[in-house]
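Figure 3 (text version): structure tokens given as input.
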């Protein structure tokens, strides 16, 4: 929403490109909170979401943070959120954030983060979310070899190799 809707502090596609380009893998987290400590709670929830698993965020090279709140959200709360998030990443990490008012969530704050620069050897997937592979199966498999060179093709937007 922050890219297509005007906000207090706007984000654009250049910000997304800055965080995601040449940064390795990325993960996303989000959190929402209401009440007296909503800013701090939403920030902690976003950085400890199950989507991030046991990702050591101190190794991240980039963070894109979006903060949405009702018109009762203050800049002090935005500063609190960014302080919590900044404390969980390396000083060298590139952190870009944007904020906007959303009257539909009056009384609460929603924080979303995209953490980039993740090396897969630093990541432990969330428990219960690991898919079984053919190598883990009890079903016998056979391997066929050929003298033909493998053909390399790219799929949608060059992201998926076939």
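Below: residues designed for each position.
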């Amino acid at each position: 929403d922050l890219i297509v809707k005007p906000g207090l502090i706007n984000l654009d596609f250049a910000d997304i490109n800055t965080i995601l380009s040449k940064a390795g893998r990325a993960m996303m987290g989000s959190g929402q909170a209401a009440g007296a400590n909503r800013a701090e709670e939403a920030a902690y929830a976003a950085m400890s979401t199950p989507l991030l698993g046991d990702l050591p965020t101190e190794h991240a090279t980039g963070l894109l943070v979006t903060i949405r709140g009702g018109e009762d959200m203050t800049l002090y709360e935005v500063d609190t959120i960014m302080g919590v998030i900044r404390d969980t990443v390396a000083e060298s990490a590139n952190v870009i954030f944007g904020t906007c008012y959303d009257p539909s969530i009056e009384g609460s704050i929603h924080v979303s983060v995209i953490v980039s620069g993740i090396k897969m050897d630093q990541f432990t997937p969330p428990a219960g979310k690991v898919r079984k592979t053919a190598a883990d199966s009890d079903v016998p498999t056979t391997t066929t070899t050929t003298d033909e060179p493998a053909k390399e093709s790219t799929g949608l937007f060059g992201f998926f190799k076939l």
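The beta strands are 25-34, 62-69, 94-101, 108-118.
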